[in-house]
Backbone:
């Protein structure tokens, strides 16, 4: 019998939940109308769009008109940074981000630097945590935006978003958070947390790829990136991906119902995994020991390369990742791990294991039996090994 493959890379992407797929299906060939059309096909589509917008807004306690649909988290992050920068440049040209942002924030910031803006990058401690006091110190008279990732896609550390939001609100500076990894997994309340803009994506929570959103608080001044037919209040022209949005909303609805129970289940599996992996000699956990995503564990193993471990595990039928999906193909030490103070050789030996809806205790046991063997074999042939 063929051995079942074990998927432990849910932070990279998730399979579409069959309930999501079922909800989407009628919107491909039956309810296919364009939301901008005046006839009944269009009106039916428009109604579905607004009903589903409400469901997504409800998860983070936003108003429906504060959700702008986009095509990806990358687009949402570009829209947040560039849109705020250009709409508010008369007020100032200074932006604050952290040193562990996803490339879609870091590269947007870098592009803005080339176009006359100034960017401060706040460093993190050894757990990858950003200090609110340091943000407060970095704020200047001309600061227009603070953008801090909610939970790291690589090491899973959850940032003190509520405290950072409070500082920004007091100083009347817009606050954006990239919540692509936390949305649907841990509770978020944009009002309590003083968030003005928030990035979320469907395919990280068992929805389809190609659909995401940016929460934009009412009254926030932002320039669109895409100009055209004026969809999404003129902030994101493009015919909306209605089937995708219906799937996104269904995925959100399921997360909302199951979040607390699932969070607990995953935390138990994750903690069991961490406790047992750390029994391997010369291994350590990256990211915060407690303030981390329920489904994330990130380790470094001395004297071996993360890529070699991931390849050997893949041959054994277990899919994991080194760092993030975006950097794992680059064979460079992760900039996030370097930012936490790891030496390049420690960062090279890192492995990200991310759990999800279909991860079982049995799969974790198989992983825990396989990993020590793989590391032992690799250390035996490693020129760096003791
Ligand atoms: C935190 C974070 N932000 C942004 C993105 C970009 O998402 P996408 O490639 O779907 O645009 C990712 C993807 O992994 C992510 O983890």
Residues:
């Amino acid at each position: 019998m063929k051995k079942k493959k074990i998927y432990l890379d849910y932070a990279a992407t998730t399979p579409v939940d069959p309930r999501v797929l079922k909800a989407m299906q009628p919107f491909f060939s039956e309810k296919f109308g364009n939301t901008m059309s005046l006839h009944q096909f269009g009106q039916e589509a428009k109604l579905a769009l607004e009903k589903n917008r409400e469901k997504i807004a409800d998860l983070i306690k936003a108003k429906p008109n504060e959700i702008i649909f986009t095509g990806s988290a990358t687009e949402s992050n570009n829209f947040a940074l560039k849109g705020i920068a250009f709409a508010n440049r008369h007020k100032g040209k200074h932006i604050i981000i952290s040193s562990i942002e996803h490339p879609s924030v870091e590269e947007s910031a870098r592009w803005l630097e080339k176009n006359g803006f100034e960017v401060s990058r706040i460093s993190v401690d050894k757990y990858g945590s950003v200090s609110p006091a340091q943000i407060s110190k970095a704020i200047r008279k001309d600061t227009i935006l603070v953008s801090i990732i909610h939970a790291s896609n690589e090491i899973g550390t959850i940032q003190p978003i509520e405290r950072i939001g409070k500082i920004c609100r007091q100083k009347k500076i817009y606050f954006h958070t990239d919540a692509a990894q936390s949305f649907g997994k841990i509770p978020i309340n944009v009002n309590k947390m003083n968030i003005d803009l928030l990035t979320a994506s469907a395919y990280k929570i068992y929805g389809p790829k190609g659909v995401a959103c940016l929460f934009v608080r009412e009254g926030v001044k932002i320039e669109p990136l895409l100009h055209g037919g004026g969809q999404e209040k003129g902030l994101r022209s493009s015919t909306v991906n209605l089937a995708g949005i219906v799937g996104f909303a269904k995925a959100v609805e399921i997360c909302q119902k199951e979040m607390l129970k699932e969070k607990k289940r995953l935390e138990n599996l994750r903690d069991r995994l961490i406790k047992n992996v750390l029994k391997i000699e010369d291994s350590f956990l990256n990211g915060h020991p407690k303030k981390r995503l329920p489904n994330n564990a990130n380790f470094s193993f001395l004297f071996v390369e993360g890529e070699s471990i991931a390849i050997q595990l893949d041959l054994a039928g277990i899919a994991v990742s080194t760092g993030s999906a975006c950097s794992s193909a680059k064979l460079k030490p992760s900039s996030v791990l370097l930012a936490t103070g790891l030496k390049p050789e420690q960062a090279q030996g890192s492995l990200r294991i991310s759990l999800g809806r279909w991860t079982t205790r049995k799969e974790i046991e198989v992983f825990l039996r396989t990993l020590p063997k793989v590391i032992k074999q690799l250390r035996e042939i490693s020129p760096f090994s003791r």
Remarks:
- The mean pLDDT is 96.
- Residues 72-74, 77, 102, 104, 149, 153, 178, 180-181, 201, 325 surround pyridoxal-5'-phosphate (CB under 6 Å).
- The first helix runs from residue 18 to 24.
- The chain has twelve helices and twelve strands.
